[in-house]
Every structure is written in C-alpha cells, then in structure tokens.
Predict the 3D structure of the following.
Amino acid sequence: MKILVIGDVVGSPGRSMLKKALPAVFRRHDVEYCIANVENAAGGFGVTKEVCDEILDLGVDCLTSGNHIWDKREILGWVDLIPQLLRPHNYPKAQPGRGSHVGVSRRSKVKVATLNLSCRVFMNGALDDPFTLGLEEVERLRQETPVVIVDIHGEATSEKQALGFHLDGLASAVVGTHTHVPTCDHRLLPRGTAYCTDIGMTGPYDSVIGVEKDAIVQRFISGMPSRFETAKGDPRLAAVLVDVDPANGRALSVDRMLLAEKDLGSL
Ligand code: FE2
C-alpha cells in the first residue's frame, strides 16, 4: 500500500504545485493515503481553516504541522474541529488540538495512523520528550492499526535519526519536516521502518527556505530585521513514497521525489 508524505507546503506557490502535481502523482504511483505538512501553507506562516479545506479537497488525508501551527491566530478556533489537522503530540497538554489521527486508505480500506512529533534541539517552546511520548503513542496507535506514519518536525539531523532508530520496527515510517531542505538519506532501517531525515519543502526553490532570498541575504549581512516575503520562483513538490505491508505495518520500500513543473508531463 503506497503512502505519500509531502514536505512543508509553503504559501500559494506550494499549494498551487500540489494542485498541479497531485492528480498525476496519485495516479502514477497508485497512492492510497496522503499526508502533508501544512504549517507554512497560508502565506508562508501558519495555516487557516480555508487553506486546510483547500488541501483536504485535493485528496490529502491528514495534515501535520510544527512550530508555525499557531502563527495565524484564527486556527486556534478551528483546530479542535478539524480532526485531520495535527499539532505535535509532545506540545503542552494545555494547548488545543491533537497529535495523532487514524484515517482509512482509499482502495484497500486499511486504517492508517499519523503521529506528529516535534524535536527539541534548536526548537523553541516547552516541549515534552518526543522519544518517550512518541513511543507510548505509537504503541497505543498500533492497538488500532499496524500502519503508523510519524512526521518528526525538527532542526537537528541527529535527533531525527535517533528518533528513527527509537521507533524502528514499531512505526511504518519516520520522516522529517521543518528544515525545508530535502535530504537524500531515505532508507529502510533494520527492523522495517522507512526513514528520511527531511522530506524537503513543497514550494518555491528560488529562495532561502521559501523566503525571497535578497531579504535573507541582507539580514545576514546587516543583522537588521527585514520583512519576509514568500518567494515564487521554481516551485517544486517534495515528498516521500512509502510502500507499506498492511498486514504487519512494515515498510517494503521508500523513495523520494522532488518534482518541478517540467517533470509533471512525464508522470
Ligand atoms: Fe517548522
């Protein structure tokens, strides 16, 4: 069963790339379930109810997030009403929303669990331990289905790799988001978990991690604050495709894709 996990969707360039690419990618790879990280999908910072609806309407089944989840304040009033929208499970319990979701795959009607976790190294906020809480939640979800996909949102490659090994053999996949830079270390871990440190950004690659590059360069040079605008050029879709055995949840293969508009015609 093929599960597509899409890396951080950034602003309208990212959303319009989803709209153009997803029908062909779904068809070409016989995708049964799709997860996307949407924390930057509204104007490059945060997410709104309208943007969630737009992405769910494209056939995405579950939406994950991270440190930018609350950037658009209006989502505070909606997060408990959109069961497919997750915030990291190890955020303080006093925060609204939830960190996991169980959906059903399109053709084979297999339950697919998604768990959203945040790393702690170089990440702001009073976050609980993603290793302990993540393991407990994966074990709880496995009572319902062996197919468990983990989005680990974080900066430090070492912490993400450690979480991958910590959940190896229990999660079907542990895949990373947040840095907006795809890594080419996708592989199957020894006990059958698919792993990739960072899927990369679905958005404009003529940019510094999605933002107009000149403003960022000037900020590094001057150290002065500057206005960040979402870039537009060279939009791409970044995703990993995991083939999972629905009988036991083990990953059979993991592939990575980084598609530009010119690549869509040959799908
Ligand atoms: Fe992030």
